[in-house]
Amino acid sequence: MIEVSQLNAGELAALLHFHADAGVEFLLEDEGIDRFAEFASSAALRAPEQSAPQQERAQRPSAAAAKPAPRPVSATAVAIPGEEAIEMARRAAEAATSLAELKQAIDNFEGCNLKASARNSVFPTEAGSLPILIFGATPSAEDDREGIPFSGAHGELLAKMFGAIGIDVAQMTLAHSVPWRPPGGRPPTPAEAEICRPFAMRLIALAQPRFMVMLGNFTTRFFTGSTETIHALRGQWFEIGTPATEAMAMLHPQDLMTAPLSKRLAWTDLLALEQRIKQVNA
Predict the structure, then answer these.
(1) Which residues have C-beta within 8 Å of that of residue 48, sequence separation ≥ 6?
(2) CATH classification of 80-281 is 3.40.470.10, yes or no?
(3) How far apart are CA 209 and CA 42, in angstroms?
(4) Its pTM surpasses 0.85
(5) Fewest CB atoms within 10 Å of the CB: 26, 161, 166, 199?
Protein backbone atom coordinates (compact mmCIF):
# COMPACT_ATOMS: atom_id res chain seq x y z
CA MET A 1 0.00 0.00 0.00
CA ILE A 2 1.34 3.45 -0.90
CA GLU A 3 1.68 5.80 2.06
CA VAL A 4 0.26 9.32 1.76
CA SER A 5 3.73 10.68 2.53
CA GLN A 6 4.99 9.10 -0.71
CA LEU A 7 2.54 11.06 -2.89
CA ASN A 8 3.56 14.27 -4.60
CA ALA A 9 1.34 17.37 -4.55
CA GLY A 10 -0.43 16.53 -7.80
CA GLU A 11 -1.15 12.93 -6.80
CA LEU A 12 -2.40 14.03 -3.38
CA ALA A 13 -4.73 16.60 -4.95
CA ALA A 14 -6.09 13.95 -7.33
CA LEU A 15 -6.72 11.62 -4.39
CA LEU A 16 -8.56 14.33 -2.46
CA HIS A 17 -10.65 15.17 -5.52
CA PHE A 18 -11.55 11.49 -5.82
CA HIS A 19 -12.81 11.49 -2.22
CA ALA A 20 -14.74 14.72 -2.83
CA ASP A 21 -16.39 13.27 -5.94
CA ALA A 22 -17.34 10.20 -3.88
CA GLY A 23 -19.12 12.46 -1.40
CA VAL A 24 -16.50 12.40 1.38
CA GLU A 25 -16.43 15.94 2.75
CA PHE A 26 -15.27 15.49 6.35
CA LEU A 27 -12.56 13.07 7.45
CA LEU A 28 -12.42 13.71 11.19
CA GLU A 29 -14.89 13.89 14.06
CA ASP A 30 -15.02 17.12 16.04
CA GLU A 31 -13.77 15.32 19.17
CA GLY A 32 -11.66 12.19 19.56
CA ILE A 33 -13.21 9.02 20.97
CA ASP A 34 -11.19 7.03 23.50
CA ARG A 35 -12.09 3.45 22.54
CA PHE A 36 -9.76 2.04 25.21
CA ALA A 37 -11.67 3.87 27.93
CA GLU A 38 -14.97 2.65 26.46
CA PHE A 39 -13.72 -0.97 26.55
CA ALA A 40 -12.42 -0.64 30.13
CA SER A 41 -15.74 0.81 31.28
CA SER A 42 -17.67 -1.96 29.55
CA ALA A 43 -15.41 -4.65 31.07
CA ALA A 44 -15.87 -3.21 34.56
CA LEU A 45 -19.65 -3.38 34.19
CA ARG A 46 -19.46 -7.02 33.07
CA ALA A 47 -17.13 -8.11 35.92
CA PRO A 48 -19.80 -8.51 38.66
CA GLU A 49 -21.95 -10.55 36.30
CA GLN A 50 -19.09 -12.87 35.39
CA SER A 51 -18.05 -13.42 39.04
CA ALA A 52 -21.55 -14.16 40.40
CA PRO A 53 -22.28 -17.81 41.37
CA GLN A 54 -23.83 -19.90 38.62
CA GLN A 55 -26.89 -20.62 40.80
CA GLU A 56 -27.48 -16.92 41.44
CA ARG A 57 -27.24 -16.15 37.75
CA ALA A 58 -29.66 -18.96 36.95
CA GLN A 59 -32.28 -17.41 39.24
CA ARG A 60 -32.10 -14.07 37.48
CA PRO A 61 -34.61 -13.38 34.70
CA SER A 62 -33.12 -13.69 31.25
CA ALA A 63 -32.48 -10.60 29.18
CA ALA A 64 -35.07 -11.78 26.69
CA ALA A 65 -37.75 -12.10 29.38
CA ALA A 66 -36.96 -8.82 31.12
CA LYS A 67 -38.66 -5.76 29.67
CA PRO A 68 -36.32 -2.80 29.25
CA ALA A 69 -37.34 0.44 30.90
CA PRO A 70 -38.73 2.92 28.41
CA ARG A 71 -36.29 5.65 27.36
CA PRO A 72 -37.32 9.19 28.21
CA VAL A 73 -38.16 11.10 25.05
CA SER A 74 -37.44 14.79 24.69
CA ALA A 75 -40.17 16.91 23.19
CA THR A 76 -37.71 18.22 20.59
CA ALA A 77 -36.58 14.73 19.60
CA VAL A 78 -39.96 13.42 18.48
CA ALA A 79 -39.79 12.33 14.85
CA ILE A 80 -42.41 13.96 12.65
CA PRO A 81 -43.39 12.25 9.39
CA GLY A 82 -41.48 13.75 6.49
CA GLU A 83 -44.40 15.13 4.48
CA GLU A 84 -45.97 16.66 7.57
CA ALA A 85 -42.68 18.27 8.62
CA ILE A 86 -42.13 19.70 5.13
CA GLU A 87 -45.62 21.20 5.16
CA MET A 88 -44.98 22.68 8.61
CA ALA A 89 -41.75 24.24 7.33
CA ARG A 90 -43.49 25.61 4.24
CA ARG A 91 -46.22 27.28 6.27
CA ALA A 92 -43.73 28.72 8.76
CA ALA A 93 -41.46 30.06 6.00
CA GLU A 94 -44.26 31.60 3.93
CA ALA A 95 -45.62 33.40 6.99
CA ALA A 96 -42.34 35.32 7.36
CA THR A 97 -42.48 38.76 5.74
CA SER A 98 -38.98 39.91 6.72
CA LEU A 99 -35.57 38.45 7.42
CA ALA A 100 -36.15 39.00 11.16
CA GLU A 101 -39.41 37.05 11.00
CA LEU A 102 -37.70 34.27 9.03
CA LYS A 103 -35.06 34.00 11.77
CA GLN A 104 -37.82 33.71 14.35
CA ALA A 105 -39.58 31.06 12.27
CA ILE A 106 -36.39 29.00 12.08
CA ASP A 107 -35.78 29.38 15.81
CA ASN A 108 -39.32 28.29 16.67
CA PHE A 109 -39.45 25.38 14.23
CA GLU A 110 -39.46 21.94 15.88
CA GLY A 111 -40.10 19.75 12.84
CA CYS A 112 -36.48 18.83 12.06
CA ASN A 113 -34.57 16.53 14.41
CA LEU A 114 -31.28 18.20 13.48
CA LYS A 115 -32.29 21.02 15.78
CA ALA A 116 -32.27 18.67 18.79
CA SER A 117 -28.56 17.87 18.40
CA ALA A 118 -27.36 21.33 17.34
CA ARG A 119 -26.14 23.93 19.81
CA ASN A 120 -27.71 26.82 17.91
CA SER A 121 -29.88 27.64 14.95
CA VAL A 122 -27.53 29.37 12.52
CA PHE A 123 -29.45 32.31 11.08
CA PRO A 124 -28.74 34.20 7.85
CA THR A 125 -26.82 37.43 8.33
CA GLU A 126 -28.61 40.72 7.79
CA ALA A 127 -28.63 41.77 4.16
CA GLY A 128 -25.85 44.25 3.39
CA SER A 129 -25.66 46.90 0.70
CA LEU A 130 -24.59 44.41 -1.98
CA PRO A 131 -27.39 42.32 -3.55
CA ILE A 132 -25.37 39.08 -3.37
CA LEU A 133 -26.48 36.02 -1.42
CA ILE A 134 -23.89 33.38 -0.46
CA PHE A 135 -25.14 29.91 0.46
CA GLY A 136 -23.01 27.29 2.18
CA ALA A 137 -24.12 23.75 2.97
CA THR A 138 -24.41 23.21 6.74
CA PRO A 139 -22.96 25.06 9.74
CA SER A 140 -19.40 24.27 10.77
CA ALA A 141 -18.52 23.54 14.39
CA GLU A 142 -17.65 27.23 14.86
CA ASP A 143 -20.93 28.35 13.27
CA ASP A 144 -22.81 25.97 15.55
CA ARG A 145 -21.18 27.50 18.64
CA GLU A 146 -21.65 31.11 17.55
CA GLY A 147 -24.99 30.86 15.73
CA ILE A 148 -23.48 32.86 12.84
CA PRO A 149 -22.72 31.50 9.34
CA PHE A 150 -19.09 31.41 8.20
CA SER A 151 -17.81 32.49 11.61
CA GLY A 152 -14.64 30.38 11.67
CA ALA A 153 -11.82 29.45 9.29
CA HIS A 154 -14.25 28.99 6.40
CA GLY A 155 -15.46 32.56 6.88
CA GLU A 156 -11.92 33.94 6.98
CA LEU A 157 -11.06 32.25 3.70
CA LEU A 158 -14.37 33.31 2.15
CA ALA A 159 -13.59 36.94 3.03
CA LYS A 160 -10.16 36.65 1.36
CA MET A 161 -11.66 35.04 -1.74
CA PHE A 162 -14.16 37.83 -2.37
CA GLY A 163 -11.84 40.52 -1.10
CA ALA A 164 -9.51 39.58 -3.96
CA ILE A 165 -12.10 40.94 -6.41
CA GLY A 166 -12.98 43.95 -4.27
CA ILE A 167 -16.13 42.58 -2.62
CA ASP A 168 -16.65 42.97 1.12
CA VAL A 169 -18.27 39.84 2.55
CA ALA A 170 -19.79 41.95 5.34
CA GLN A 171 -21.94 43.68 2.72
CA MET A 172 -23.49 40.44 1.46
CA THR A 173 -26.10 38.10 2.90
CA LEU A 174 -24.56 34.87 4.19
CA ALA A 175 -26.53 31.72 4.93
CA HIS A 176 -26.49 27.94 4.97
CA SER A 177 -28.88 25.69 3.06
CA VAL A 178 -29.56 23.84 6.33
CA PRO A 179 -29.64 26.02 9.49
CA TRP A 180 -28.64 23.27 11.94
CA ARG A 181 -25.36 21.35 12.11
CA PRO A 182 -25.88 17.60 11.65
CA PRO A 183 -24.25 15.34 14.28
CA GLY A 184 -20.52 15.00 13.64
CA GLY A 185 -20.78 17.28 10.61
CA ARG A 186 -22.27 14.51 8.45
CA PRO A 187 -24.21 15.47 5.30
CA PRO A 188 -27.96 15.98 5.86
CA THR A 189 -30.22 13.15 4.76
CA PRO A 190 -32.54 13.80 1.79
CA ALA A 191 -35.49 14.06 4.21
CA GLU A 192 -33.68 16.59 6.39
CA ALA A 193 -32.74 18.63 3.33
CA GLU A 194 -36.33 18.74 2.10
CA ILE A 195 -37.59 19.90 5.49
CA CYS A 196 -35.11 22.79 5.43
CA ARG A 197 -35.70 23.75 1.79
CA PRO A 198 -38.69 26.09 2.39
CA PHE A 199 -36.58 28.29 4.69
CA ALA A 200 -33.79 28.58 2.11
CA MET A 201 -36.19 29.41 -0.71
CA ARG A 202 -38.01 31.96 1.44
CA LEU A 203 -34.68 33.63 2.22
CA ILE A 204 -34.06 34.09 -1.50
CA ALA A 205 -37.51 35.62 -1.94
CA LEU A 206 -37.04 38.01 1.00
CA ALA A 207 -33.44 39.03 0.31
CA GLN A 208 -34.12 39.51 -3.43
CA PRO A 209 -30.46 39.18 -4.42
CA ARG A 210 -29.25 40.11 -7.88
CA PHE A 211 -26.74 37.28 -7.71
CA MET A 212 -26.41 34.11 -5.67
CA VAL A 213 -23.35 31.93 -5.08
CA MET A 214 -23.74 28.23 -4.22
CA LEU A 215 -20.69 26.86 -2.43
CA GLY A 216 -19.76 23.20 -2.70
CA ASN A 217 -21.31 19.87 -3.64
CA PHE A 218 -24.27 19.75 -1.30
CA THR A 219 -25.40 23.34 -1.82
CA THR A 220 -25.26 23.18 -5.60
CA ARG A 221 -27.12 19.88 -5.72
CA PHE A 222 -29.62 21.19 -3.13
CA PHE A 223 -30.67 24.11 -5.34
CA THR A 224 -30.20 22.69 -8.84
CA GLY A 225 -31.26 19.06 -8.37
CA SER A 226 -28.13 17.94 -10.22
CA THR A 227 -26.24 14.79 -9.24
CA GLU A 228 -22.96 16.04 -10.70
CA THR A 229 -20.05 16.99 -8.47
CA ILE A 230 -19.01 20.56 -7.78
CA HIS A 231 -15.96 20.07 -10.03
CA ALA A 232 -18.33 19.43 -12.93
CA LEU A 233 -20.74 22.26 -12.02
CA ARG A 234 -18.41 25.02 -10.78
CA GLY A 235 -18.34 28.18 -12.89
CA GLN A 236 -21.76 27.46 -14.38
CA TRP A 237 -24.75 29.78 -14.05
CA PHE A 238 -28.22 28.65 -13.00
CA GLU A 239 -31.57 30.32 -12.40
CA ILE A 240 -32.91 29.69 -8.91
CA GLY A 241 -36.23 30.68 -7.34
CA THR A 242 -39.22 32.70 -8.53
CA PRO A 243 -38.56 35.27 -9.85
CA ALA A 244 -35.34 33.69 -11.06
CA THR A 245 -32.04 34.71 -9.50
CA GLU A 246 -28.76 34.24 -11.36
CA ALA A 247 -26.72 31.75 -9.34
CA MET A 248 -23.15 30.54 -9.83
CA ALA A 249 -21.76 27.27 -8.49
CA MET A 250 -18.37 27.67 -6.83
CA LEU A 251 -15.95 25.64 -4.72
CA HIS A 252 -16.51 25.84 -0.98
CA PRO A 253 -13.66 27.23 1.19
CA GLN A 254 -13.36 23.72 2.65
CA ASP A 255 -12.61 22.42 -0.84
CA LEU A 256 -9.71 24.87 -1.08
CA MET A 257 -8.39 23.92 2.36
CA THR A 258 -8.51 20.24 1.43
CA ALA A 259 -6.97 20.72 -2.02
CA PRO A 260 -5.06 24.04 -2.23
CA LEU A 261 -4.36 23.48 -5.93
CA SER A 262 -8.07 24.13 -6.52
CA LYS A 263 -7.58 27.80 -5.64
CA ARG A 264 -6.82 28.54 -9.29
CA LEU A 265 -10.26 27.17 -10.20
CA ALA A 266 -11.91 29.33 -7.55
CA TRP A 267 -10.01 32.36 -8.85
CA THR A 268 -11.32 31.72 -12.37
CA ASP A 269 -14.89 31.58 -11.05
CA LEU A 270 -14.45 34.73 -8.97
CA LEU A 271 -13.23 36.62 -12.02
CA ALA A 272 -16.26 35.40 -13.99
CA LEU A 273 -18.56 36.61 -11.20
CA GLU A 274 -16.78 39.97 -11.14
CA GLN A 275 -17.17 40.33 -14.91
CA ARG A 276 -20.89 39.49 -14.75
CA ILE A 277 -21.47 42.04 -12.00
CA LYS A 278 -19.70 44.70 -14.09
CA GLN A 279 -21.86 43.86 -17.10
CA VAL A 280 -25.05 44.28 -15.09
CA ASN A 281 -23.90 47.55 -13.53
CA ALA A 282 -22.59 49.00 -16.80
Answers:
(1) none
(2) yes
(3) 55
(4) no
(5) 166
